[in-house]
Amino acid sequence: MLKNVMIISTSESFAIKSMEQKLIAQEISAYQVVARTTDIGSNIDRAGLIVLYLDERMAAMTASLQNMLSYLNDKLYESNKMLIIIAKRKDYEIAMRYISEDFILQFFDRPMNMDSFVQTVFEYMNEGEKKMGDNDKPKEDGTAEAAPVKRKMTADMVAVRKRRILLVDDDASYLRIIRNWLKDGYEVGVASSALQAIMWLAKNDVDLILLDYKMPVCSGAQMFAMLQNDSQTKSIPVFFLTGNSARDDVMEILKLNPTGYLLKTFDRKALLTRLEEFFEFT
Q1: Each residue of 49-101: pLDDT tens digit?
Q2: Which CATH number fits domain 164-280: 3.30.2000.30, 3.40.50.2300, 3.30.70.660, 3.30.70.260?
Q3: What is the per-residue pLDDT across 241-270, written as a single tens digit (0 to 9) for each?
Q4: Rounded Cα–Cα distance for residues 138 and 131 (Å)
Q5: Are the C-beta atoms of 238 and 258 separated by less than 8 Å?
Q6: What are the angstrom distances between the C-alpha of 134 and each of 123, 131, 137, 140, 146?
Q7: 72-100 burial, b for 16+ CB within 10 Å, e for fewer?
Q8: Fold for domain 4-126?
Q9: Which residues, 6+ apart, have CB-to-CB distance to 73 below 8 Å?
Q10: Hey, do 4-126 and 164-280 end up sharing a CATH topology, with the first three levels equal?
Q11: pTM for this predicted structure
Q12: Of 4, 100, 190, 282, which one has the greatest count of Cβ atoms within 10 A?
């Protein structure tokens, strides 16, 4: 694992400097980035762990901060990285509207216990490292016994790849609910806008898109048109999500000729059954 910690904050402060120094003392490097999507995107690959420090300036939850949190959630999914959040309890609860709990390693209430924070980071960074046990005792010549060689995986031992679904909806709470419903059986990506979805699709393959029909700025219908006009994405199956069951509205969706549509009134069982039926024949 990369022993680098990326600390996201608005500005350098005594708390940030203290974190960096404490981590360096444990031979873990740390670097700070400004809470902007561009800075996060260009620096996340070299991090083994992410820390989000929500101070009073960030806790205002402006539109730009909401976009940053949604973007961070997507990057955590893409890069398979974990996040520590340091914030006041109320600010943490607001931030969790945009970030999936699956990516949270630990939450620390401000003012935090610095020793507990450093210990958490240290244990996480060293979790995958080989520890010397009874079978690794030094030989008489001072060398260690070789660790047992892991058995190579054969073809029938390799797990079948889960189907990958992209959820696109401007309602962060709804995204979180549906993702939690699907995460055990599918790989799930999330996007809170058409722009985020297009950026995600540029880097990821997907088996199905669940697309909110009514979204601000760029609607689901407009995003669907963009997908259809691109040779790389036109073959991706799309199910529209709609909260309106009126006949005229449903007919409006069907005229676009999507793969299908789902009413947002579905429960977890109905959604999973519909997806199972779809993937059974694809």
Answers
A1: 999 998 766 655 567 787 888 889 888 988 888 999 998 888 888 888 888 88
A2: 3.40.50.2300
A3: 988 878 888 888 999 999 999 999 889 999
A4: 13
A5: yes
A6: 21, 10, 6, 15, 12
A7: bbbbbbeeebebbbbbeeebbebbbebbb
A8: Rossmann fold (3.40.50)
A9: 98, 99, 100, 103, 190
A10: yes
A11: 0.49
A12: 190
**Cα gap 15→23, rounded to integer Å:** 12
Longest dimension (CA), the chain: 83
Which two three-digit tokens encode residue 275? 């997806």
Cα separation, 166 vs 162, whole angstroms: 13
Domains of the chain by residue range: 4-126, 164-280
Q: In this structure, are residues 178 and 189 in contact, taking their beta carbons and an 8 Å threshold?
A: no
Other Cβ atoms less than 10 A from the Cβ of 220: the count is 25
- Amino acid at site 238: V
Token couple for 66? 């909401």
Report which DSSP code applies to 202: T
- Main-chain dihedrals φ then ψ at residue 254, nearest 5 degrees: -65, -30
Place of tokens 């402060």: 13
Contacts 24+ apart (CB under 8 A), 186-191: 186/162, 186/275, 187/162, 187/163, 188/77, 188/164, 189/74, 189/77, 189/78, 189/164, 189/165, 190/73, 190/74, 190/77, 190/100, 190/166, 191/70, 191/74, 191/166, 191/167
